[in-house]
């Protein structure tokens, strides 16, 4: 019996540590994402402060929109992470109170070390986004395991006491119901311990599943941010266009002879990237627009 209890507690501890490790990785990735998004904002601020022409504000507006989209998505993930962490603490807090309340109802005296630790932050259902520290989560989980271990020790001691009395009293069958009742009550205690352990198993399983999904999503977001945002814009421009940029000849007209079947619609769609990447191209566009002839020779 002791061996079973030792194995069960060790397994519960191991499952919980996996969850803590997942949570730590998520929090680290969240911090890294926030720093990278802040980097995008700083790029925008630096460019705006050093370029005061309206045409540059127009060009940089796409960068600011990109920042707002990234920040909005980041806030979504932060909310999911906060809600999941909040729920995790709430599960343990409610289970802890259920166990301690039932111990009082059954006149089970818990060790002083557990009673002294009953200072866990109060969980409030009306604050679903409040994040509790990982230390608070670890402390209340540790106390639950301590109580389970104490209850199991109590069960074993009672079991041994019943067996010893059963062997000692030789008064015939009239005492049978007495021992049956004691065994019944002790078995109820064992079933309660199993029930509490199953609650923990369920919480561990569901929390691990939630955190694994969150970890996958934030890693995908990190990859998207790194691959599509925080890269050299010239590399991205070559990847999108895959063809030569139209040149402006001496007469001020666009020369499209060296391009590979670029339609006017495609050129308009890609103009934002070209404008953002080349000051020279912007100035020539302004020159063409102001040309008194108003014609573009192709």
The helical percent reads over 70%
Radius of gyration: 34 Å
What is the domain total for the residues?
2
Secondary structural class: mainly alpha
How large a portion of the residues is in β-strands, by DSSP E? under 5%
Shape, please? rod-shaped
Largest sheet descriptor: 2 strands, antiparallel
How are the strands of the biggest sheet laid out side by side?
1-2
Tally of individual helices: 8
Which features characterize this protein?
8 helices; mainly alpha; rod-shaped; disordered C terminus; 298 residues
Describe the protein's architecture and organization.
The protein has 298 residues and is mainly alpha-helical. The chain is 77% helix and 1% strand. The chain folds into 2 domains: 2-228; 243-289, no CATH class. A two-stranded antiparallel sheet has the order 1-2. The longest helix has 53 residues, at 176-228. The protein contains 8 helices and 2 strands, in the order ααααααββαα.
Please give the structural blueprint.
Blueprint: H1 2-50, H2 54-105, H3 112-116, H4 134-168, H5 176-228, H6 233-241, E1 247-248, E2 254-255, H7 264-277, H8 279-289
Antiparallel strand pairs: 1-2
In short:
With 298 residues, the protein is mainly alpha-helical.
């Amino acid at each position: 019996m002791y061996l079973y209890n030792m194995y069960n507690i060790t397994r519960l501890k191991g499952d919980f540590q996996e969850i803590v490790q997942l949570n730590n990785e998520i929090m680290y990735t969240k911090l890294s994402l926030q720093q990278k998004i802040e980097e995008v904002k700083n790029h925008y601020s630096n460019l705006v402060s050093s370029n005061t022409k309206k045409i540059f504000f127009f060009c940089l507006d796409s960068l600011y929109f990109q920042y707002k989209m990234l920040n909005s998505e980041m806030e979504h993930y932060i909310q999911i992470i906060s809600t999941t962490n909040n729920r995790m603490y709430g599960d343990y807090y409610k289970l802890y109170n259920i166990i301690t309340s039932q111990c009082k109802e059954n006149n089970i005296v818990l060790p002083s070390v557990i009673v002294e630790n009953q200072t866990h932050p109060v969980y409030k259902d009306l604050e679903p986004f409040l994040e509790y520290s990982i230390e608070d989560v670890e402390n209340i989980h540790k106390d639950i395991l301590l109580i389970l271990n104490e209850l199991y020790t109590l069960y074993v001691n009672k079991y041994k006491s019943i067996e010893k009395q059963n062997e000692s009293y030789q008064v015939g069958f009239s005492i049978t119901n007495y021992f049956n009742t004691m065994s019944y009550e002790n078995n109820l205690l064992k079933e309660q311990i199993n029930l509490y352990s199953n609650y923990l198993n369920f919480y561990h399983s569901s929390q691990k599943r939630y955190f694994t999904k969150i970890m996958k999503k934030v890693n995908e977001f990190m990859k998207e941010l790194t691959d599509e945002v925080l890269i050299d814009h010239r590399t991205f421009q070559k990847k999108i266009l895959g063809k030569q940029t139209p040149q402006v000849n001496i007469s001020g007209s666009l020369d499209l002879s060296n391009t590979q079947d670029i339609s006017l619609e495609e050129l308009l769609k890609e103009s934002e990237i070209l404008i953002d990447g080349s000051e020279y191209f912007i100035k020539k566009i302004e020159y063409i627009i102001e040309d008194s002839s108003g014609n573009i020779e192709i």
